[in-house]
Write a structure and sequence with these properties.
Strand 25 and strand 26 form a beta hairpin. Helix 11 crosses helix 15. The protein is elongated, with a radius of gyration of 53 Å. The N terminus is likely disordered. It is an alpha+beta fold. The protein is built from 47 helices and 34 strands.
Length: about 1400
Amino acid sequence: MFSPPPAAWADVGPVQQPSPTRRPASVAATPDQLAQAYKHVRSVVQSEGRTPDLYDLLSHSVRETQYSFSPQGWPSLVRPLSPVLSEMPGMVLERYNACQTVAFCGVFPELKRAWASVDNSFFLWRFDKWQDVPIEYSGEEQAIVAVGLARPKPGVFVEAIQHVLVLCTTSEIVLLGVCCSRGPGGAGDECDEVTLQPLPLYSVPADNVTMVCVSSTADGRIFLGGADGHLYELQYSSGSSWRSKRCQKVCHTGGLRQLLPSFLPSFLFGSPSALVDICIDDQRHILYTRSQASVLQVFDLGSDGSAAPAKVAESSEFLHDSSRALGGRDVFGRGGGDRKGAAVVYMAPIPPSQSHRLHLLTVTADGRRVYWAAASSRYGNDPAGPRPDRLRAEVARQAMPSSSAGAAGRAGLGGGGHAPARGLEVVAAHYSNGVLLLAEAAAGESRTRLFMLSRDLTIPPVGTATGTHVAVAGLREAVSQLEAATPGEACVIRSVPSSAPLLLGGLETAVRDELTTQNLGAAPRFVMVTTAGVLELEKLRPVDVLAQLLEQRDAAKLEMFFKSYGAPEAAAMCILLATAGPPQVTAAAVAQAKAALDNPRLCGEPQLREAAEGGVAAAPAFGAGADDALGFDMGAVVPVAEPEWSGAHQGLCLYASRVLQAVWDEQVAAPMRGSPLLKSRLSPDTLQSLEDKLRSLDTFLADYLQRRRGRLPGGAGGEPGALPAAKRQRLEDAQQAELKRTEAVHALVARAAEACFLLRVLCEHNIGRLALRMEEGLRAQLRVLRFREWVSSEDGEAVATQLISVLVAEHLSATGGVAEDLAAALQQGCGSYFKEDDKLYYQASGLLQRAEAAAATADREALAREAVSLMLRVPLAVDLVQVVPQLAYLRAVQAIVDLPLRKAAALDPHDVASQPGPEGEAAAQRRDEVCYQPAMAVLRLLVDRAAAPPALEALGKSLSDSERAAFRQQLLAHAAAAPDPCWHASLYRTLVQLRAVKELLSLDTPHLEGYLIRAGCLLGAASGTSVGPLSASQVAHVEVLARFYISRHEYAKAAQVYELLADRASGPGEQAVSLERREEYYQAAVLQAKSYGDAELLDRLESKARIMQLQQRLVGVLAAAASAAQDEAAREEAEGAVSELRAAPKPLEVLYNDFAIPSQNWRLCLEMVHLANFSDRQYVCQLWDLTLKEAWQQQWEAGGEAAAAVGAGDDAAAATALDECCQLAESLGGQFYPNENSFPSAHVLMRLEQAAAGTWPLHSGAAQGSDRVLLAMAGACQGSYEAVVRVYEALLSVRGGDEAGDALHAPALRLRLLRSLAAAITAAKDKLLDRAPGAFGGYRGGRREAGLLAAACEAYAAEARRLLPAAEAERLAAQFEALQAALQPLLGGFRPVAY
């Protein structure tokens, strides 16, 4: 079950600002126009990416321009948040006045609290609340010497302990748990209430080592710096074991010294230098230490930060090593000089986001800086970067100059020689995100002067060198000083952590410069603790400086600001102020910012380039014809260049790009880890923040565009008539072009704001759950959809529409069909996604749900009619996939047809789908997919229950067979009556796919035949030609077309369709056609031709069927030959022939000449010759010789081997070979008889008799009887012994000079032929005697046959007596005479005449 939506949908909109009214610009903009708008924004912005590497900035800076000062009258870049210092609590001061040993103070910005320790007491109080009562902890007996704060390791303490306080005394080191919570009733922030929880199990003895400093890693490791110069680690865990204690102190640098007695190290090795500072690079997992003697050490914590610190490098001579850096000699000389001023007082890691080459920054007591590298390579395969292997000074930088040096101008000059520019006495420093704060003790006073160095992002003055490399400007730093000195001596400076900007897209703030990030996050804040109290500070961003200048209303200062940062950057800041509004910005500053954007003196005007500039002609005026341009060459290509945009428009593009680019390429939703469910990649807070900014910008642009439209061309206060006509026209054209571009950006901003609103609402209702109810295709698109596509693509529009549909459907289910509150909220918050038509549609959807729930039939029908009438008004908003199943459930048959037709007409108002060509096909396909398919899904259910989609399964189960048949009949009747040809095409296609041919042919529509011809790709095809290849769907349509013709008794057309199917070309995959299938089509065509009665058509089709049979047999023979071939070449050749034969039907001559003859398949050759009615008798006789010879030799060789195996002679092999030849002659002769062209019976008989005599095809000497030959010839002559007798007579009548005459006149063969003839006459006589009695009395033909046989006996008896040997010839003559006598009773007085 889905959870119900929120009760009050009116609260879904933006919290800070109401949703603006939907504007025509955002509604009218198409996805392509929105994409083009963002492309324009990026093209105006051009290159704005990552800040150059800090090393490049430092190495390309010039000494004379390293520092700059703010112009006279500009506010200082650093200011206190409170006009007075937050003094130390009275309790702390009272205890300090009674201090006996030591006292320290510091700050924990993570807890928003300052701390102080006096002897053994520890105090903690909130520095941002006036006179906050401090927390006191006095649980230790010895004096506290060092304090630190760390985040605990996961799983060691309870979840309530969010931090661990490390207190180091002279005798032990203890841990205290720090619990943070909100105030009573949930008021205040997360650090409003802080309590300290003692942890008695977590304490270790100090072992006579005084700890000087404490530092921790992000994952909870605690490191300590001892006065003995060693690095210690406080290791703690949730329990003890035999290998490790619950809490223990480990020395990582002691070596052999820690094993010696305590009095020896100082005696042998000298006095150690205390470790006064430890800093850790949590991203690279590198630890740095600094001793009191300015000795720097580097330790590797491993690639994951869990390894024991391994010392990899050390710098023991700071001055010497620093002088070898870039610029080191200018800053430090050759390693000598003032060692007191060169003592290191501060160090900080440089994050990878600022530099891949530099790793550590050190600051000396007089303000000079050295940048160090701890790794020899810049990049590595390790996720934490290359591992440290050295410590080398890379760049040295002079101390900042005095403020008097920059009084004459903006650029400050560094000091000369090796000494710093001024005598600084740095007592505290802090570096973060490119900002360096230096606290200097005022000479002779108990006060502190604070200086801030930050990167100067203004445009360098003309003629000022900023570096030798053109591509990278040098690092210029702006020097600012807190206007009033701070009481007390500075102890520590720390930055106050703030929540990461939500719209940075996962990048660190330091990756981009301040101009890019100032519109995304708050100004950076710092806190400084002095001996007198705590001071909160804030660095002014450029936009904050601009806000103060705008409030001053000083035109000269404002103009200088625009020149310093450039008109585009300054305009972007004005837009930021104008969109922020109170209370962040005063109303006066907002008004002045808007006025500055409208001031041409500050932002300029758009300009079209002159014709001579760059060789590019100016574009003609907007709306002007081609003839208006003088000298226009019709044959030349005239490039139309974009205008030079005003600073206001460039600033708008800068601001819009910076707001959008953080999320523009972000993925909208992605699978959750370990789950297929989707989750938004953008948090609701991020979307809310972005939406608020975009809504503010949308409101600002609406007002800005209204003012721009009302401005006259000609500049500030200028009259249009004061300008020349051509220049005035160019100015008007440029302003119109910029106005159009601004309107496009406005549409993009409005659309993006609505996209954020919609995505936020979907996230609040579990977008992953909603996605499960989407179509699979759209759900797959959602998985890869990016925010830019969500805003400006048709795919994003489709996905959003589907998600809104699912959301509203869920809401309708939860509220019983009422969705007015949700529709109103969506229409107000994302009007371009949810329009007025959508509202009507979902109102109708609610009516349908109520109709489904209605008990009375009348109420159900009335609600359904009302819903359908509303949907017919807004067809484009109707989701037919969801609605049609509901209509089917309500049995609204007419609506199932009408709604798709109405939506198709609205989707294609110009009826492009009916036009030929690609555009028409695309429009028809879109109609089918969007409009017709939901209705066709219902038809599929009614035709085939198994074809029902999931949305209709319940309906299918609820219908009985009779109800389904009635429903189907009604739906087909309404569908057939529709006038839309595209609808009919979809209907026919569906029925063909379902193989519902009976239902299809029962439709009385005029479109069916033409559709089947087109869908079957038969348009223009003629009988006897080849079509295709055809897909399975096209073949199905053609088969239905044939059945269509059969149902209308048009058998000739049906035969032609089947012939086209059999003759079609074959293709890959489903387009392939087997020879068996082709034969089936030919047989079907033959059947239809017989029904039609066309002899010529029938003869052609039967011939094609016979040829196809031969082709199949030929394929079988060649395939068998390929499998039996031993030679690879022969096998490949046979396989190639098989593939070619299977590809398409071949003509008979091709089969014969290209396949049958080369493969020496003589039997198939004879069949092909017979089919072709070939009349060359001699050629056919040769084929018969080859066929019989091949059969004889195969059996002779096989029979000989078998006979040898059993010890038999050649007689058995000869008998087997003869039998094979006789079977072949009987089989083929039975097919060819009585065609003498293909079956030369006399020649075949001669070869059989010669084979029986053992004289052909080789002289085997194994003679056989002629009985088998006689039977074979009788079978070939279809049982007619009279025909066999005639064949023998024809053979015996051959003269000696004729072909084969000499062989036939050989006495032995001739005697054999006469014996065979006598046997044939005997068989013929016996067949005559088998006739019924009296058959000869009334049938003259029988007496004639008997007379012919008797005459033959008389003639051949005489011939036999002329042969040798005489005895055998005499016996044969007597046999003929006996046969003649036996035939006399059959003559009935008829005397035959010999011939």
